[in-house]
Amino acid sequence: MYRSSVFLKKMMTTAGKEINVSYVNKTDTWERTVVAQQVKNEFIAVAEKYKDTLKPTTVEIAVK
Question: Could you tell me the pTM of the whole model?
């Protein structure tokens, strides 16, 4: 189960909703100590591309 995440960026949808972009750094079974900057950048780019397709109740998306 997801335990914690690290904030990467706040983005706005075209409807004006704020969404936090993060990566999971701890679950019940593992803990991540580092994520490559390239992986962070790629996830942010994908999140930006699809931000307007998220459910209206979404407040955070996180790469696991």
Answer: 0.86
